[in-house]
Each structure stands twice: as structure tokens, then as C-alpha cells.
Specification:
The chain has about 90 residues and is an alpha+beta fold. About 45% of the residues lie in helices and about 20% in strands. The protein has three helices and two strands; from the N terminus they run αααββ. A two-stranded antiparallel ribbon has the order 1-2. The longest helix has 20 residues. It is elongated. The termini are far apart.
Length: about 90
């Protein structure tokens, strides 16, 4: 080791274990966010579509339901978006 290399700081190289750990953390965080939605959400969406179909013709793709759980505020939000057809 030369004198100049002693004073020069080299960036530590990411090993394959560190890279695998980072990737696994991303996957676990993604799976955790998907698991946060309640199990009744698909059934709720089908029921909303059924009720709206009593009054107008829509498809199941016209209704989207999203559940957001904000742990820092202790608030859960259910967002329902319905794309209604234009009147003819």
C-alpha cells in the first residue's frame, strides 16, 4: 500500500449479500403494503357495482376501491372512484 492510498478513502463495494438484503427489504415492504388492504375490499367493490347497476349501465372496471392505512395518524381511508357514463 502506497502512502497516497493510505489517505485516500475508497468507497466500500456492495457485496452480493448486501445487494440481496436490500432487494429483499424492498420485496417485503411491497408485500406488506399489499397485505394492508382488508380482505372484504373486493366484495365491497362488487356490491357497489351491483347497486349502481340498478340505476345505470356500468362495468366492473368503472369502479375502483383503494384502502389506505396511515399508521402515523391512526387514520384509515377508503377511496371509491366511480367513472359514470355520459348522458346521451
Amino acid at each position: 500500500m502506497g502512502l497516497l492510498q493510505y489517505f485516500r478513502k475508497e468507497k466500500p463495494k456492495k457485496g452480493s449479500a448486501k445487494l440481496a438484503k436490500d432487494r429483499l427489504q424492498i420485496i417485503v415492504a411491497h408485500e406488506h403494503s399489499n397485505a394492508a388492504s382488508p380482505a372484504y375490499l373486493p366484495e365491497l367493490q362488487r356490491e357497489i357495482v351491483a347497486v349502481i347497476r340498478k340505476y345505470m349501465d356500468i362495468s366492473t372496471q368503472d369502479v375502483t376501491c383503494e384502502f389506505t392505512d396511515k399508521a402515523e395518524d391512526d387514520i384509515s381511508v377508503l377511496e371509491v372512484n366511480v367513472a359514470l357514463p355520459k348522458n346521451k
